[in-house]
Design a protein that fits this description.
The chain is an alpha+beta fold. Helices cover about 15% and strands about 50% of the residues. The chain has two helices and eight strands; from the N terminus they run ββαββββββα. Strands 1, 2, 3, 4, 7 and 8 form a six-stranded antiparallel beta sheet that branches. Strands 5-6 form a two-stranded antiparallel ribbon. It is globular, with a radius of gyration of 13 Å.
Amino acid sequence: MSHKVLKISGRKHEVLEVENLDLETLQELIGGGWIERVTFGLGFAGVVDEEGEFKRVELGTTQYNGYPFAGPVIVMREEMTAEGMDFVGLQDDDIPFLLQMKGTR
């Protein structure tokens, strides 16, 4: 089963389909390293490179609480499962909503 995620890098964005939302896949999507989970609300969450600033990755235009992320942001849905909160893929109608919230189309 594939999962849709939204990858935002600066002003660029792309919808990707990945087979798994496991640690290795998420690390690969952000370019390697430690991932940091970010909860955006409304059922959306994402991961960023926890060490992006230290790697001198360019600060992006994507912000959370006024703080810009360094490197790409991978946005997904999160929902409660029997094991706790878990990432799940985006639905088709999530993409336009997220891009509108970000201010890009």
